[in-house]
Amino acid sequence: NQYSLQMLSSSLRSSALSTSVRGLLTASSAASKPRHDVEGRAPPPLNQLSEHELALRDTVKRFSHDVIKPLVRSMDDSSTMHESVIKGVFDNGFMGIEVQEKYQGPESSFFDAVLVIEELAKIDPSVSVFVDVQNTLVAPLILTLGTEEQKQKYLPRICHDWIGAFCLSEAGSGSDAFALKTVAKKDGDDFVISGSKLWITNAGYASFFLVFANAEPEKGYRGITCFLVDRNAEGVSVGKMEDKLGIRASSTCPVNFDGVRVHKSAILGEYGKGYKYAIECLNAGRIGIGAQMIGLAQGCFDVTVPYLQERKQFGSRLIDFQGMAFQVSEVGMEIEAARMLVYNAARMKEAGLSFVKEAAMAKLYSSIVASKATSKCVEWLRGVGFTKEFPVGKFYRDTNIDTIYEGTSNIQLNTISKLIDAECKAMDYTPPLTVALEADRYRV
Fold first, then answer.
1. Triad 23, 28, 33: Cα angle to 5°
2. Fewer CB within 10 Å, N or C, the chain?
């Protein structure tokens, strides 16, 4: 009957596929056991760091413990980044990590930036996001899109004393980022920028802004253009710092542009390509957010486990109770899994591979893990965890931003699902749906 013929056809296709796959595996077995690089070395594990990377991480760790840690409580209470912290991240080369030496930068790697962001977040996520925005949003755009004149002006200062802010979000354009209302009206060789930006990280400390404005609203998002605007330009004003739940020392402010006149030379990249640049930049930025979250989760975990090792109940350490031990194991495992997603996405970006799905997965999963880890740490510490004297409460507050900025969790899920859908559509060996449906009907 028709069903039998369909199943036979499907079976033949599957058999042919299996034969083909076996042939490929046999033919490539010598090369695939194991994979080696050009010098005959097997690729290292994702979490294996080079000597340079280990040295960098240790440098960040020392700075975090010596300079940042004593100030965390006061910075959180006052919602202010201490001057010694700002000076320190510049002096240690943590800002503008990928900037080339000819522009007075360390000319390091994106993965190095991820390590710095992660390590800082173990002590204070506010400092981590401060450094993150400079390295994953601001500097890369100028590095890749800037004219030589723009690079000469901004890149050396980015590495030494200037902070940049990425101005995309508005009151009516959050997840729908390109519904922005800020306009840039052409006037001769100038553009006049008018509009307001909201939730701008580092705005209070910024020396300049990367402003996304629509130069031709009638073209929709295709009119969006990126402009470099100095803070001292006439018409620029930074509003009151938001009184936030978490990452309180990180400056988050509205920025207003009231008829700000800039020359056409202030355009960053191509006219009308701002939407494209923002999307590409945010994809990389999500890896940075993932690094923040795994650092935050690890930092919270690291201050909690010693308490569980020392605290005794009924004559035994808390960590010796099976129920507690299993929970600790689970959280530790999930932090490590999230780290692998973040590191993998970062390595893929460095290798020039497509990393959009991996970045979304890293950002999404690390935020889930950080939320769970901090919540569990507060729970495990009981009353101690509920006080400000112990840092887990701050970590718990800080992690609440993870599902919001640089793309909500639902935006990440949407991105991942679309890419999985596209990948599955590209597969030519999937049995036709009609065969599967017919098989189900006959099983019934």
1. 130
2. C
- What's the pLDDT tens digit per position in 364-378? 999 999 999 999 999
Q: Which two tokens stand for residue 173?
A: 């354009």
CA–CA distance, 266 with 260 (Å, rounded to integer):
12
Lowest mean pLDDT among 14-18, 262-266, 298-302, 367-371: 14-18
Domain-by-domain residue ranges, the chain? 51-163, 165-273, 276-425
In whole numbers, what is the pLDDT of the chain averaged over residues?
Answer: 89
Q: Which of 110, 135, 140, 121 is nearest to 60 (CA)?
A: 121
Look up the CATH superfamily of 165-273.
Butyryl-CoA Dehydrogenase, subunit A, domain 2 (2.40.110.10)
Q: What is the CATH number of domain 51-163?
A: 1.10.540.10
The per-residue pLDDT for 407 is 74
Residue type, 164: G
pTM of the model: 0.87
- Which residues carry out catalysis? 406
Given a cut of 90, whether residue 156 has pLDDT beyond it is yes
State residue 435's pLDDT score. 61
CA triplet 41, 44, 45: central angle to 5 degrees?
155
Of 73, 95, 97, 71, the C-alpha closest to 83 is 71
CATH of 276-425, one of 3.60.15.10, 3.30.300.30, 3.30.110.30, 1.20.140.10: 1.20.140.10
Contact assessment for residue 152 and residue 103, using Cβ atoms and an 8 Å cutoff: yes
Q: How far apart are CA 177 and CA 193, in angstroms?
A: 18
